[in-house]
Amino acid sequence: MMFLFSISAVMAQSFEFRYHGESLTDGALVTIAAEEDEWGFGEMCCYSNPSSDPNNGLVLQVLSGNNTQGSATMTIDENTFNPSRVLWCMGGNCMMFGNNTSITKSFNVVNGICQVQFDAEDIQSEGHLLATLTATIGAETHTVKIKFTNGELEEPITGDVNGDGSVTAADVTTLYNYILNDDDSDLVNGDQDGDGNITAGDVTTVYSILLGN
Question: What is the CATH number assigned to the segment(s) 15-150?
Answer without folding.
Answer: 2.60.40
